[in-house]
Amino acid sequence: MFENLQERLGAILNGLTGRGALSEADVSAALREVRRALIEADVALDVVRSFTDRVREKAVGATVLKSVKPGQMVVKIVHDELIEMLGSEGETISLNAPAPVVIMMVGLQGSGKTTTTAKIAKRLTERQGKKVLMASLDTRRPAAQEQLKQLGEQTGVSTLPIIADQSPTEIARRSVQAAKLGGYDVVILDTAGRTHIDEPLMVEMAGIHQVSAPHEVLLVADSLTGQDAVNLARNFDERVGITGIVLTRMDGDGRGGAALSMRAVTGKPIKLIGVGEKMDALDEFHPRRVADRILG
Ligand code: GDP
């Protein structure tokens, strides 16, 4: 699919043989296509703008090597810039803190928070030999705590016993206490989501953060989130302070533009991607692959 943009740019630029450097007009024509590709990939408009500005700066006046066509050269500049903006390879969840290390999962309802909580717990247990406790702090959706308990049974990971009528902050406090007493290495707090960001949600998240002092705050977001990705990431980062992002549903048809949008506004790394509903469907984030996908 990557050839797609290359072909489009080739059609615009490859007639320019014999010229030594890319002119402002050549680059502008090419960037119109780049902009279109990014918008098709659902990258947020502000981010598309800042990205194309960065590429313009690098491309105008760049000398076109004899061995490559101008279209290929612009694609390379775009591709390299995209990889740089998407961030480094091999980011992982940090457990570099005194036990029990608290990981707080945040995000909108339906983003895949509970599923991802269990996937991460399973991975830390199986691959790193950690003793993990999971707790659902979602007191709003009646079945939420039960859902996590079932995933715990399925994956063989402990869950905090459910006590009715406790508030999210009470459950957070109890989770950390239980993890300390039980000798757990890691405790993962699965917080409540809403269909959209609102003030009470942010107040609740800040309260949980305060009582549990998480070492990692992971924003779980659906990779199909379009223009809302920027607001979502900015709000959670400003109000709660995230340390990383997990993008779910990367197994779908989406081109993953949300990855670029969220990374650009928060500067926080994408640590993992969800690639299916199964408990093992969690992968490392590879910027190069996502860059190819975004360019289409
Ligand atoms: P929550 O409301 O944020 O806790 O969302 P859930 O964890 O309950 O997930 C909502 C739905 O998305 C469930 O049916 C999950 O199986 C599904 N889901 C979660 N992550 C992924 C993923 O990476 N890929 C796919 N295809 N489905 C996912």
Q: How many angstroms separate the termini?
A: 5 Å
The largest β sheet comes out as: 8 strands, mixed
Bound molecules: guanosine-5'-diphosphate
The helix/strand series, from N terminus to C terminus, equals HHHHEHEHEHEHEHEHEEH
Structural class of the helix and strand makeup? alpha/beta
How many helices? The count is 11
Describe the global form: elongated
Radius of gyration: 22 Å
Number of strands: 8
Arithmetic mean pLDDT:
91
Order the strands across the largest sheet as they lie in space. Answer: 3-2-4-1-5-6-7-8
Poorly predicted tracts of residues:
none
- Which percent bin holds the helix content? 40-55%
Please write out the topology:
Blueprint: H1 2-13, H2 24-40, H3 45-59, H4 70-86, E1 101-106, H5 113-128, E2 132-136, H6 144-155, E3 158-159, H7 168-181, E4 186-190, H8 199-212, E5 216-222, H9 229-239, E6 244-248, H10 257-266, E7 270-274, E8 282-284, H11 287-295
Parallel strand pairs: 1-4, 1-5, 2-3, 2-4, 5-6, 6-7
Antiparallel strand pairs: 7-8
Helix pairs in contact: 1-2, 1-4, 2-3, 3-4, 4-11, 5-6, 7-8, 9-10
The site of guanosine-5'-diphosphate has 17 residues, from helix 5.
Compact summary:
Its EC number is 3.6.5.4. With 296 residues, the chain is an alpha/beta fold.
Label this structure with key terms:
single chain; 296 residues; alpha/beta; eight-stranded mixed sheet; 11 helices; 13% strand; elongated; binds guanosine-5'-diphosphate; hydrolase
Question: What does this molecule look like?
Answer:
This protein is of the alpha/beta class and 296 residues long. Helix content is 50%, strand content 13%. It contains eleven helices and eight strands. Strands 3-2-4-1-5-6-7-8 form an eight-stranded mixed beta sheet, sandwiched between helices. Strand 6, helix 10 and strand 7 form a beta-alpha-beta unit. Helix 1 runs antiparallel to helix 2 and helix 9 runs parallel beside helix 10. It is elongated, with a radius of gyration of 22 Å. It starts with a helix and ends with a helix. The mean pLDDT is 91. It binds guanosine-5'-diphosphate. The site of guanosine-5'-diphosphate (GDP) has 17 residues, from helix 5. It is a peripheral membrane protein.
